[in-house]
Amino acid sequence: MKANGLKLTVVAAAAVAALGGAYSLGHANNTPTPTPPAQIVSAGPVSTPSAQLPDMSAIVARNGASVVNISVSGTRKTAAGHPGVPQLDPDDPLQEFFRRYRGPQQQGEAPVRGLGSGFIVSADGTILTNAHVVDGADEVIVKLTDKREFKAKVLGADRTTDVAVLKIDAKDLPAVKIGKAADTRVGEWVLAIGSPFGFESSASAGIVSANSRSLPDGSYVPFIQTDVAVNPGNSGGPLFNMAGEVIGINSQIYSRSGGYQGLSFAIPIDLAMRIEHQLVTSGKVQRGRLGVAIQEVNQSLADSFGLKKPAGALVSSVEKESPAAKAGLEPGDVILAINGKDIAASGELPAIVSGMAPGESAKLQVWRNGNARQIDVKVGQFSDEKVASADQPEAAKGRLGVVVRPLTPEEKRRTDASGVVVQDVAGAAAKAGIKAGDIVLSVNGERITGTEQLRDLVTKAGKRIAVLVERGESRIFIPVDLG
């Protein structure tokens, strides 16, 4: 197969100047009078008041040797039958052709290889990278910029935060300087170094475009969002500030093509170093938990609950016998602050709680029934907390617009709550996102026990209500504008 070449296009621009004499016709006679030759003035640099772009060459020179290339190898079991062709896309029509005509194959193993980046955090050979870079690897090879290669040991990997710690047998290695992600400001310049597509020691720069960004995957990581060009192979590499300090680990991109499209996300180094410390000292990670499912508070929900502004984390369900249940948290509570720190967005809460040690006490400022109160809770041991989400299309006029029926005995056992099942939906409910099959559990915090009660509550309600529904395994509040 012919390799694709890298084409360099050089554009040469030539400026040609012609100097000619200029003559003017005098009125005394018709003899042309020569004029002095035009003076050639060299145009100097034009000064502008705009700020100069930062020169990041010193940061690269100082830290380049601390960034490593990571290659992993392993095996993956292949199913018996008709395997496809690895070079082809699984959806390629030719795959079906080869499955059909290559004949039956025995179950076996196929080699798996991958590339990523990492960086040295201590001179004795401790390296940080992403957990997904080394996931399932049988062998991990770390290559330094001086071309030395070492077989690395995976000290531990935490899939929840996507942080892994490696160790190589080397001494006096150049380690990076660790900064504080909490001090990062939106708009400041940042620099990434890594191995995109296997091109080692590549640098790319941009600005921080957002802080504490929550992603739809339900991650506990408050990501640093940047517009730095990050591509496959950059995973696990460092993100530097202009002081040459590492403030994050490049981890994810948003892309429809598989390559960089303007959005990249880094794990804050403060969080990564906490994980690193636990993995090195104990080989495992302990995280705090409350035992609640939460969702974002938008303007409609804020109006429904009587909040001055949309902020906090709305509790949509509380796990039985969880720390939250023992402390008295209820569905419909809005957690506004924890230990004095305001919760501006729901995604901030899991990151804070997971960073607490099991058994640690937390003071929650909670909004309930139009009033603020404090609830003390003892943080428990980590288990997955689901962050519920719901589409909130533009609301329409009219009342709720649902046809409901009572729960069957089987549904009551499964739901372990009272409520009614939505059979058909239209009007305001449909516009707000309520669907057939949803179980309506409460309206504005009042539990639903039957169809008549639901009708009465909706009739007496104001312009907006907050409807708690159970959909599959999740419970979510849906704001409905009744007009």
Q: Which parts are unreliable, with pLDDT below 50 for 5 consecutive residues or more? A: 1-35, 37-43, 384-398
| Multimeric organization | single chain
Q: Order of strands across the widest beta sheet?
A: 7-6-3-4-5-9-8
Average pLDDT score: 80
> What is the rounded Rg?
31 Å
Estimated structural class? alpha+beta
Question: Helix content range of the residues, please?
Answer: 10-25%
Number of strands: 30
**Gross morphology:** elongated
Report the total helices. Answer: 10
Distance between the termini: 65 Å
List the helices and strands and how they pair.
Elements: E1 23-25, E2 32-34, H1 57-63, E3 67-78, H2 93-101, E4 108-122, E5 126-129, H3 131-134, E6 139-143, E7 149-151, E8 153-158, E9 163-167, E10 177-178, E11 189-194, E12 202-213, E13 223-226, E14 238-240, E15 245-253, E16 264-268, H4 269-282, E17 288-289, E18 292-296, H5 299-305, E19 313-318, H6 323-327, E20 334-338, E21 341-342, H7 348-354, E22 361-368, E23 371-378, E24 380-381, E25 402-406, H8 409-415, E26 420-425, H9 427-432, E27 439-443, E28 446-447, H10 451-460, E29 464-471, E30 474-481
Parallel strand pairs: 10-15
Antiparallel strand pairs: 1-2, 3-4, 3-6, 4-5, 5-9, 6-7, 8-9, 11-12, 11-14, 12-13, 13-16, 14-15, 15-16, 17-24, 18-19, 19-20, 20-21, 20-22, 22-23, 25-26, 26-27, 27-28, 27-29, 29-30
